Structure formats: C-alpha cells, structure tokens
C-alpha cells in the first residue's frame, strides 16, 4: 500500500515485480521522517525484503516486515554513537542473500550495504544526507568534538571505499545533492520526501484563534529551541514547544526565565500535532536542516514558517509568500518577521504545500527506479 493525500491506496503496478528486491534503512525509530520515507519506498516495492540495522523497542518490527541485523542482538543498539564505527561492518555482513535490485534509504552508512555482486545487483540509494556527524560536523555538533577527528577521517575513508558499487543516487533536497557532489564526488537527482499534506490540511475541529507561536521537533542543540524561546519573548507571544529530547530540562529552565508563557507538549499524538499546527500564528524553524518535513506539514495547515534562510527551507518556503526566511540567528530579526505574518495568505500557503504531497514522491520515485533498472 502507499499514501495519496493522507489515505492508503494500492500501487497501480508494483515496480520490479519480476525481480528480487531488497530495501534497506539505518536504525528504525517509531517516529521519524526518514522512516516514513523508507516505508513509502517499500510500499512502491511490496514484494521487497525489508532490512534495518535494528528497530527500537516500541516499533512493531514483525508487523512492518523488518529484518534486523546482528547489531540488534547486541548492547550497541542502545547507543548510536558507539554503534557508528561498527555500522559499515554490519551492512557488509547483513545477509547471505543476493538480490537483483537493492534500494537503500541512507543517512549514515546504509548506502554501503552490499547484497550481491555489482555486476549483477543494481543498487540505488536515496540519501537523506551523508552522515552529518562524519561529513558535516559544523552542521551537526554531535561530531564536532576534536577528539573525534581521527575516527571521523577513518569513517570518511570507509564511507567512500565501501560505496563505490552504488549505481545511482537520489537526494532529498538540493542541499543534500550538493553535499553528495562535494563529499562523494557523485551526482544525484533530487526527489523531495513525501509529506502527508492532506492530513494536516484537513480541519481538526472548530477554527482556532492562532494565538501562539509553535516549535516542533527533537529537542537537541542544533534545532535551536532555545532561540525559539528568545524569539517568542521578543515577539511578545506565547510559545508551544512540541516534541521530546535530551534538552528538555535545559529548555524548561530557559522557558522559566522569560516573560511569555511557554508550554511543553511532550510526544504529542499525530492528531494533537495537527491541532497545534492549525492553531499557531507561525511555525518557528531557526535551524539549518537538510530538507525539513515539519515546515511543510505546518504550511499544509495554512501556517506560515519563520525560519533560517539556509538549507532545505530555501526549497520548502517561498519567502514573502508562505513565510519569511531570516538571514541571521538574532531573535529580534525573527520576531520582526513574526509581526509580518498577517500579510500572508493561508490559501496560498496550503497550495504551495501540495507540491510535496505523497503522490508526487511516489510518481517521481517510481520513475527514477524504473529508469535506473531498465
């Protein structure tokens, strides 16, 4: 099954039905944009075997048909950082099976998987990003520790050496395509990830007053939730922070120091998230992101985005029409943009979001797979 505008429908004609196919992904969390992309790819290839390094404890791996690697039987599954150096080995020893076609969904080392000789097995890789803590430590601070310099160089060399067999790459954004060219010296087509725009556009109930600002995502440093709190204070508006993560305690302390109400919604349901989008005056997104599904979900709800003028937002937000892109991380500059959201049309914002709907992804992905496997 696949998704079209928020509802599941059967694919018209399964791709590569006459060939053996494997689809692979890194670790599998219960909620995550990359996991949703992997499942959307797997839906296009319903007969494919599905491999992951491991699935988190709350993931129904059996129901999803996920086959886990031997890493799932080790303590390393509890620490991605400790497992990282072992991942290339895990991918190379994933299974004895050989397939005609392999499609990987990669944001670390899944593109290094080898499930058959390259002269027989066609390997296509959809890339969310070259591993940011390995290749882009300035973007993702998790890899910026100076003590990681030597391990990072070793992992870069392994990443390049073990991925030579990949026949074709697709990137989730122009930003990621440019990284693939810079780091791997390979070209890639751009296929934006699927977003459930139909679901987030559907009314969640009575029209809401849009009286608060909203921040959504994992509470980790590079997402800049502390800056969102400063922006809300500068704009004089309440803020709702939705998500979860290791920064919760620090963010709650920061929220207690400002003069506007800051509410925390921990792990909101999909239904509650839709309500939050539809009740927000604007989504704050002052982070450099590879693509950013959250800003598209917000726009599907007719909510403008105030974000950083960099990364994926350059592709998902039309500056001055569906939001405002700010070139600095100064709270005052973002607050000034918040004051201008009344100039924007909710109808135009929703219309723009439809260009990222799931059927667009399914059609583009199907075309790419079909072209590369002829």
From TrEMBL:
The keyword Lipoprotein does not apply. It comes from the Bacteria. Gene3D superfamilies: Glycogen Phosphorylase B. GO terms for molecular function: glycosyltransferase activity. Keywords: Transferase. Residues 212-354 form the Glycosyl transferase family domain. The keyword Hydrolase does not apply. This is Glycosyltransferase. It comes from Micromonospora globispora.
């Amino acid at each position: 099954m696949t998704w079209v505008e928020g509802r599941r429908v059967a694919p018209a004609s399964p791709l590569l039905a006459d060939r053996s196919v494997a689809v692979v992904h890194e670790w599998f969390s219960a909620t995550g944009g990359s996991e949703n992309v992997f499942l959307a790819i797997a839906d296009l290839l319903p007969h494919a075997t599905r491999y992951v390094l491991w699935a988190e404890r709350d993931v129904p791996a059996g129901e999803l048909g996920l086959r886990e690697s031997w890493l799932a039987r080790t303590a390393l599954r509890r620490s991605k950082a400790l497992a990282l150096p072992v991942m290339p080995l895990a991918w190379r020893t994933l299974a004895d099976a050989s397939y005609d076609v392999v499609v990987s969904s990669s944001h670390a080392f899944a593109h290094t998987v080898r499930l058959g000789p390259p002269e027989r097995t066609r390997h296509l890789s959809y890339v969310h990003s070259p591993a940011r803590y390995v290749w882009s430590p300035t973007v993702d601070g998790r890899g910026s520790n100076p003590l990681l310099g030597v391990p990072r160089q070793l992992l870069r060399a392994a990443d390049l050496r073990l991925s030579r067999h990949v026949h074709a790459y697709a990137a989730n954004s122009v930003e990621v395509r440019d990284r693939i060219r810079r780091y791997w010296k390979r070209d890639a087509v751009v296929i934006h990830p699927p977003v459930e725009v139909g679901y987030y556009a559907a009314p969640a109930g009575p029209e809401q007053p849009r009286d608060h600002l909203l921040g959504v995502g994992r509470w980790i440093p590079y997402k800049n939730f502390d800056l969102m709190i400063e922006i809300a204070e500068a704009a004089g508006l309440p803020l709702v922070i939705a998500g979860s993560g290791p920064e919760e305690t620090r963010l709650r302390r920061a929220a207690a120091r400002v003069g506007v109400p800051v509410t925390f919604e921990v792990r909101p349901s999909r239904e509650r998230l839709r309500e939050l989008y539809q009740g927000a005056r604007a989504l704050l997104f002052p982070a450099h992101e590879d693509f950013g599904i959250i800003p598209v979900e917000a726009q599907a709800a007719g909510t403008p985005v105030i974000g950083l003028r960099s990364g994926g937002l350059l592709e998902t937000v039309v500056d001055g029409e569906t939001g405002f892109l700010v070139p600095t991380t100064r709270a005052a500059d973002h607050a000034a943009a918040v004051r201008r959201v009344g100039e924007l049309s909710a109808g135009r914002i929703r219309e723009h979001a439809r260009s990222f709907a799931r059927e667009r992804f399914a059609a583009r992905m199907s075309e790419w797979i079909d072209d590369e496997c002829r």
